[in-house]
Write a structure and sequence with these properties.
The structure is a homodimer. Chain A is an all-alpha fold. Chain A is built from nine helices and no strands. The longest helix of chain A has 26 residues.
Chain lengths: ~210, ~210
């Protein structure tokens, strides 16, 4: 086997492990991931699995990175072409809820589950999860800031908008995963569009100053 | 020892175990609870701990019941005297956020953590958690229905209001627990009071029909 082929195969194997581990983690938790279970599921030796990561913590960090990359592909990419500001925020919210409701995420939102699991356990895994959540809230807040600057959402602080949009997806995720409630994503979508839209409805054609939202 | 005294002592011991197990569970998870750890922490024998519950699952169910009782004491009781409808909903939201922000809940919201941990694991523990969350959403929806009937919140469906209030506390809990964000509870409180109040602000003195919220 040529060195180049060998490196490419190692990368493919590593990606296969990461993808399966990410799926598993939403159901059994990041801490529940075991090298033995992954090896069994993938028909590999334990040494073959651990050789790609070194430690369980390195595997957990790789799983978080994979989940974030997939999130960016599924949620940011479809909305990237929308006009910055309210249009893109709406596109992001739609893609976000579509992704959470998809068959791909049988175990629900990876980051919400990981956050619940690790928020009380200091260390690099908790930090990686917090960094990912903060980065996403900043993406939402940046779009909200543009929407405010464009006069599309008046009076709201960008961070408050990001906080509330994030809240609605967390509740939809809980309703779907714990309560088997099929209306959850519709409820969240309705509230998101109201949050992003009602300001303008309240002051048609700029006739009156928009009310403060927060 | 008289039989009566013996029964009372057994009850006190059981309550001590339940309270400690509930505190522990918000940090290490319901599944992470071990008879050995509880025995060590409380200076008891393992047999002494397990004798009160029989199985680990029975211990987990007892912990959920304890957490629900405490929640009712801390959140429902302070709001019970408020007038049904919007006043009581506001009082419930304030007591809820105060409880989540209190030093008592170092590990954050017990039910949110338990829901994340067990939503993918069918069985009596998942059912007990789902029953508790559903019951709380029904309490909120019933108050919202009264507020709508009183004309205090117009146009919103009671279930949508309950969903959104629950969403805001989940996000505040995540922000506090994962992101160490001290503004989280204020953000949630602001959004809750806006959600419950802006309808009336939008139609002063009944001059115009309130806008639909959902």
């Amino acid at each position: 086997m040529s060195p180049r082929r060998s490196i490419a195969e190692a990368r493919r194997t590593r990606e296969t492990i990461e993808r399966h581990a990410t799926d598993l983690a939403t159901t059994i938790g990041l801490e529940g991931l075991s090298i033995g279970r992954l090896a069994l599921d993938l028909g590999m030796s334990k040494a073959g699995v651990i050789g790609h990561f070194g430690t369980k913590e390195a595997l957990q960090l790789a799983v978080i990175e994979t989940a974030v990359e997939t999130f960016v592909e599924r949620v940011w990419a479809p909305a990237a072409a929308a006009a910055p500001g309210r249009s893109r925020l709406e596109a992001l919210c739609d893609a976000w809820l579509d992704y959470l409701a998809s068959d791909e995420l049988q175990g629900g939102c990876f980051l919400t589950a990981a956050a619940c699991e690790f928020d009380g356990r200091p260390g690099p895994v908790r930090e990686a999860i917090a960094t990912a959540v903060r980065a996403w809230l900043q993406v939402l807040a940046a779009e909200a800031a543009t929407a405010i600057a464009n006069g599309e959402i008046a009076g709201a602080s960008p961070e408050q908008v990001a906080f509330e949009l994030n809240a609605l997806t967390q509740a939809a995720n809980q309703a779907q995963q714990l309560l088997d409630d099929p209306t959850a994503f519709d409820r969240a979508r309705r509230a998101m569009h109201r949050l992003l839209g009602e300001q303008l409805a309240a002051s048609p054609r700029g006739a009156a100053p928009p009310r403060r939202r927060d």
